[in-house]
Amino acid sequence: MVDTDKYATTFAMLDRDGDGRVSAAEFKELMGTLGVAFTDETAARAIEMMDADGDGLVTLEELASYMSSPAAAMPREDSPPASRSITTAKADPSDRAR
User: Fold this and answer.
1) Alpha carbon distance 26, 34 (integer Å)
2) Looking at the whole model, is its pTM more than 0.85?
3) CA separation (Å) from 23 to 26, 34, 36, 58, 82?
4) Hey, what domains does the chain have and what are their CATH numbers?
């Protein structure tokens, strides 16, 4: 079982509507806020990479599992360029100022 606490803050930032699932549109919106322009297709591919059950949405458990896996550490040629940018949000916000 993956430690979801480590990614709860990141997930809350992604889950804009608070329904417990992150859609490609929510992911795209947050990435845009962070200054990373994603197309609808690129956002959908990023979600697909994390979506273990294939429902087109990412739960906290799926995010935590993906981010804890070797796949998250190794960029793929077809992966969205900043799909792992969300890892910066998993740290304590005070760490970002350093």
Assistant:
1) 13
2) no
3) 5, 17, 17, 7, 16
4) 1-70 (1.10.238.10)
Q: Which two three-digit tokens encode residue 37? A: 């322009």
How many other C-beta atoms can be found within 10 angstroms of the C-beta atom of residue 2? 16
* Contact between residue 24 and residue 31 where contact means Cβ atoms under 8 Å apart: no
Tens-place pLDDT, residues 31-88: 999 999 999 999 999 999 999 999 999 999 999 999 998 877 766 565 555 444 454 4
What span, in angstroms and rounded, lies between the C-alpha atoms of 64 and 6? 8
Half-sphere exposure of 68 (CA within 13 A, CB side): 13
d(CA 94, CA 70): 26
